[in-house]
Write a structure and sequence with these properties.
Keywords: Membrane, Transmembrane, Transmembrane helix. The chain crosses the membrane at residues 47-64, 76-94, 106-125, 199-224, 280-307, 319-339. The chain has 397 residues and is α+β, with helices and mostly antiparallel strands. 48% of the residues lie in helices and 15% in strands. α3 (75-96) runs parallel beside α7, α5 packs parallel to α8 and α6 packs across α7 (189-227).
Amino acid sequence: MNCGIHDNTTIGPTGYDAQYWQFSTSMAKNATCSERTYLRPDTAGSIIPWPYALVWLLIHFPLVLIRATRWQKVQVLSLVLAATSIGWSVEAYLSTQRRPDEVLVWAPLTVILDVGAVMQLAFLIMEDFAEHKGFVPPWYAFSILMGGLRKQPPKPPRSPSLRSPTEPKVANINHIELAVVTNGPAADTGVAQLSKGKAFIVVLSILLFFGLASLQIIGLVSAINGLAVKDTLESTWCSPMFESFAIGVLDGNCRLHSVSSSASRGIGCIKLSGAQQAGWLAGTVGVLIASLVLELADMLVLTLVTSKSKWRGVKMRRPWCTMFCGVAILVFYVIYGLLEASRLPSGMPEVVWVFRKEPSLGIETVCRGIITPAGVRGSIMGWTDGFLSNWGRTYFG
């Protein structure tokens, strides 16, 4: 291959003292590397693998349909998924420290579905209270729950003249007390217990809402800060072909790359452009701003629209904006992840020349190799290495 590289061009890290002219003899042989192998993203260099995103979509899509019609049936599941999303995002934040070059892992774009779900639970359950008690402010659920947790002191006995007509009348016959109960409304303890249970769901929904919204705002601020360094971002891609004393790689576009060891160990890596990460930072800012606006719109709908309002037989008091947008984001993750797993990074051809130097023998060799896309396995490795990196030796060994 004639790339017009000068003979004194340094190959690989400076510590190897290798120059291009030292490989000219091996280059003329046009040797082929043993076999083709994959090029995968290194730690935190991949979005959530598309099979994972597909599973998440298959869970949420039926849930969205049920929430639109019979939301009472999925209250617990909605809370569990919201709590799972919080744990997921917190783990991603801790592992990546929200570094700009690892935005593919920590971007909290999918939590919009859970924000809409907990808002729906809180508002529609409070609507049930309002039907019996008139207007009920959100903090009423806290008062009901705390009232149920506090032990009520016993009431002192009242004189017969102050008894209510509906209370039992006690007569003393031959020193035996007989209680005669007149007809009246009985204490409905079942309703009280149900009210406390609903109040607990409302309180938990409100807490989850603030947790999810806080994660979105934190992610938005981090993405905005990351845009300031978007032009300096790089991405790391690794391949088994880049090990065994590999010090440099020349791609089909005549660009030289130095080989370094992977953060996940046991494999050689090269640095490529961080254009994908820069694009995701800008996209994260746009999507999170739109998500917050749509969540506010849904909150207004849940607050102002009555439960009897319908359009073509469909109840309108639902968080439609977050439901549609959340499902669309998951569909995008599946499609984008599938495409990314089946193609090489932008600007990287499949044919490369690998420069190797064995330090003890001082032998310089070059071979021509073919790299393939990462596939599902490579995507899973790149994403998981970033998502669980804070586990340290527990994960990496």
